[in-house]
Every structure is written in structure tokens, then in C-alpha cells.
Design brief:
- The chain is 45% helix and 16% strand.
- It is of the alpha/beta class and 292 residues long.
- Strand 4 (144-150), helix 6 (155-166) and strand 5 form a beta-alpha-beta unit.
- It is globular.
- The protein starts with a helix and ends with a strand.
Length: 292
């Protein structure tokens, strides 16, 4: 594939930074005690199908000016090709000028936590994923001075949760929690690219598994809506790649005559009986009482 001038320039920039590191006999491990910044963002919070992915990027401040010349920006503002090119560049820089990591939370994991008898809401799941990535960076020995995060829920609440979680472990770690952080801080933009590209790859993998297009996974996506319509399984509903905790899934299952009622959800069961009592297919409704 013929390289564009922009890609050639990116390759040249990386080569020059590699040469500078080699000349100074510096590796990323040698820089762990220097000051680093970290960004965290997610992709796939709203879809009914597929995983939610949390991404993190971090780099030493001494390389920040060189690294941000690469053109990182909010992944939602980039084309698929642009995201893939930047992700490929990050893979080449990984372990040399920067680090990145991710946590992939599949649909089954999200459903289990949200439908458990001790329910975990999506905000808490998101907070836990971010905390896991921060713990990873600290445990690896990186001296993270500032961590930038796109807020999930009220930013003051999120900030307080993080300070309480890491106050004793790393007292000098500053958290910047803001709306649209992925468009304000390039280290968060880089994290958003990691999350978005890895989620895209997961969706492509699932599409191959089902041997048909599944769309983006968002409820409003016509391709996803068509896939949900054609992929209903009597008695079981859907495969584990669908988020059973989403109202979209519950409504689709109910319209197909399958109602899943979890323990402690008797009120919903009674309401559904009343709702469908006059419909012709009421006698076909299957009630599955499940304890998780």
C-alpha cells in the first residue's frame, strides 16, 4: 500500500525520536521515575451489542511536545483510516516513547454486573475500569503526576472517588476530570483512539463470527436493528454478545414473547402480565425466573 506524505512524515518523526533515544541510551524503563501524564477514555458505553472498551495512554513529560506533534485528537472527529493510522503509530511507539493499555468489558460481563442481585450500575463499572488502569500504571512503576479523564457522571463525584482510591497509594497524583476531556487533552485523545480502534476490531471479529454485518452496535444503527430482529433465539433470546441489561434488548425479547424476570423483580413480572394479557400471543410468553 502506497504511503501518504503524512504517513511518511509520521514514520520519519518516530525514527528521529528513536534515534535520539538510542543516542542517549535511554529506554522507556529508564524514565519511569520522571514525571509522566496519563489519559483515560472509553468507547462503546451506549451500544446494545458488543463490548465497552476502556483505553489508557501515558508518556513522560520530557517527550510530550514531540509526541503531540503526531496529531492526536478526539477519536470521534477522525475517520476510521485516520484512527487506524494513529493506532498503528502508537503500536510502533509502545515501550519506546509511550505506553498504552486497555480493558475490554464484554457484553456478558456488563449484563452480569448490572442484572446481579447486588446490581452494579454502568457508572461504577466505568469507574472501576479506570481505577484498574491507573493501578496498572502505578504498579508498573510509572511516576504518574497527572491523570486526565473524561467524566462519567458528575465530575466532582468522580474526582472524589479517585482521590479516595489513590490518596494513600500515591498522594501526589493529581486528577483532572472534565467533560469532553478527549477533545481538550491529547493524552486523553490518544487513549480514546486506543479504546475506539480496539472496540472496532472487536466488532469486526464478531461480525466474522456471525458471518453477517452487525453494525456499530448502537440501538439506532439500522444494521444493528436489523441484526437484532433477525437474530432472536426462542427461549434464549440472544447470544452473550448482546447486553441483556439494556432496555432495547428487554423490549425486543418481550415483543417476541420472551420475558426474563430476575429474582426480586416480581413487580415487573406483574406489570408485564397486565401489559400482555389482552394480546393474542400472551399464552406463548415464556417466564424465566433467574437468580444471579
Amino acid at each position: 500500500m502506497k504511503q501518504t506524505k503524512k504517513n511518511q512524515q509520521q514514520e520519519q518523526d518516530i525514527k528521529q525520536l528513536d534515534e535520539a533515544l538510542e543516542a542517549n541510551k535511554i529506554s522507556v524503563d529508564d524514565l519511569k521515575e520522571e514525571e509522566w501524564e496519563m489519559g483515560i477514555d472509553e468507547a462503546g458505553r451506549g451500544p446494545v451489542f458488543g463490548p465497552m472498551v476502556y483505553g489508557a495512554a501515558l508518556w513522560p513529560l520530557r517527550f510530550k511536545e514531540e509526541i503531540i506533534k503526531r496529531g492526536f485528537q478526539d477519536s470521534k472527529k477522525l475517520t476510521e483510516d485516520q484512527r487506524e493510522n494513529l493506532y498503528s503509530m502508537m503500536q510502533k511507539m509502545e515501550g519506546k516513547q509511550l505506553r498504552f493499555a486497555s480493558r475490554i468489558l464484554d457484553a456478558q460481563t456488563l449484563s452480569q454486573q448490572q442484572l446481579s442481585s447486588i446490581q452494579v450500575n454502568l457508572n461504577t463499572i466505568s469507574h472501576n475500569a479506570a481505577r484498574d488502569l491507573i493501578n496498572w500504571a502505578i504498579d508498573e512503576g510509572y511516576n504518574i503526576k497527572t491523570c486526565y479523564l473524561d467524566t462519567v457522571g458528575p465530575k466532582q463525584t468522580y474526582h472524589a472517588i479517585l482521590k479516595e482510591a489513590f490518596g494513600a497509594k500515591k498522594q501526589d497524583l493529581e486528577f483532572i476530570v472534565e467533560e469532553k476531556a478527549d477533545s481538550k487533552y491529547q493524552v486523553v485523545s490518544a487513549a480514546s483512539i486506543v479504546a475506539k480502534v480496539q472496540r472496532d476490531h472487536e466488532i469486526q471479529r464478531l461480525s466474522k463470527r456471525y458471518k453477517q454485518k452487525v453494525g456499530s452496535g448502537y440501538p439506532a444503527d439500522p444494521t444493528t436493528k436489523e441484526w437484532l430482529k433477525n437474530s432472536f433465539i426462542p427461549i434464549f433470546g440472544y447470544t452473550n454478545d448482546v447486553r441483556f441489561s439494556w432496555q432495547t434488548t428487554k423490549h425486543a425479547m418481550e415483543e417476541n414473547g420472551l420475558v426474563v424476570v430476575y429474582q426480586l423483580d416480581q413487580e415487573r413480572k406483574d406489570n408485564l402480565k397486565s401489559k400482555y394479557h389482552s394480546k393474542e400471543f400472551f399464552h406463548n410468553i415464556a417466564y424465566c425466573d433467574i437468580q444471579i
